[in-house]
C-alpha cells in the first residue's frame, strides 16, 4: 500500500526528526533531460540523489532526495494490473491525516488526475511531534497503468515551490517507447502445458526464468518488456538429465542437452528449416545447480528486433 511505501521512504530520511523549523517555500530545482522510465518518459529534478527502490514486471519505483535538504524527497511509482493503487487508498496506523484534493492535469498523458495534500503528525520520543507533509499526484490511464508522483517534507510544511516542482514533473510525463515496460530489461513468460508454472526472478544484472514442469517436458513463450536483459537464464527445476532443450527466435533454432559441447543449429524459413554450421556465438552453457538445471541463453539469439523466444524441454527421452 502507498502508506507503507511512504513509511519506508520516510525512514531513509534519517535527519527528518531533527528538523523542527517551519518553512513555507522550498528551494526550487530545475528538471533534468527526458529519460525512459518503464513505459514512460520522465524528467526528474537535476542533481537530486535518485535510486530505484523496487523493480518487477508489475511495478517500478524511484525515490529521490534533495541534496540540499535530506528531509525533502521525491517518490515515483508506475504500476500495472489489478494491484494498482487508487488515489484514495491511503491508510494509517490510527494517526489522523488531514487531506484535501484537487484535479491535476497530466498533460503529456492527456489524462486528468488527482492532487492530494496529506499531513501526518507523529510523536518522536521526547522530541516534539514531527509533521510529515506531502503532496501526491495520481492518475490511471485507460490501459490500466497507474502513475503516482509525490514530494514529501518531514518536520516542515510543504511550500509553494514544492507544489510548483511537483506540477512540473507531472506535466513532463509522457508515453515512452511503444514496446516499453513497465520495466525495461525484464521479460514475461507463459507456459503452455497444464501443470507447468514459471516465475521471473531478478538476479543482479541477469533475469532468470524459473520453470517447474510437472511432467518433465513442456514448452513456453518468453517475451521481452522494453529491452532484453543483459543476461538471460532459463532454470528448469527438479530436472535430472535434460535430454533435449530447444530454443527458437523464429529465425534460428538451437537444440542442446546437458553435457553437449556444441548445440545443433537450424536456419528457419517459411515452413522450412536447414542445418547451419556451428557458430561459436551460439555456444550454450547447460549446468547443474542444486536441484535444477540452468541454461544460459546466448545473447545472439535474442539480439536486435527479436521480441520473443520459444522454449521447449524434455528431461528424459525414451530410446
Written overview of the protein:
The chain is mostly beta strands and 319 residues long. It has 2 domains: 2-175, 3-Layer(aba) Sandwich (Protein Transport Mog1p, Chain A), CATH 3.40.1000; 186-314, no CATH class. The strands form 4 sheets. It has a 7-stranded antiparallel sheet, with helices on both faces. Strands 11-14-22-16-17-18-19 form a 7-stranded antiparallel sheet, with no helix packed on it. Strands 12-13-15-21-20 form a 5-stranded mixed sheet, with no helix packed on it. The protein is 7% helix and 49% strand.
CATH architecture heading of the largest domain:
3-Layer(aba) Sandwich
Low-confidence stretches: 11-26, 88-94
CATH class of the largest domain: Alpha Beta
| Distance between the amino and carboxyl termini | 54 Å
Question: Considering DSSP H and I runs of 4 or more, what fraction of the residues is helical?
Answer: under 10%
**Structural class by sheet pairing and helices:** mainly beta
Overall mean pLDDT score? 81
How much of the sequence is in beta strands? over 45%
Order of helices and strands: HEEEEEEEEEHEEEEEEEEEEEEE
Biggest sheet layout = 7 strands, antiparallel
The 3D shape can be described as elongated
Q: What is the spatial order of strands in the main beta sheet? A: 3-4-5-9-8-7-6
Number of helices: 2
- The CATH topology label of the largest domain is Protein Transport Mog1p, Chain A
Number of domains: 2
Instruction: Kindly state the number of beta strands.
Output: 22
User: How many whole angstroms does the radius of gyration measure?
Assistant: 25 Å
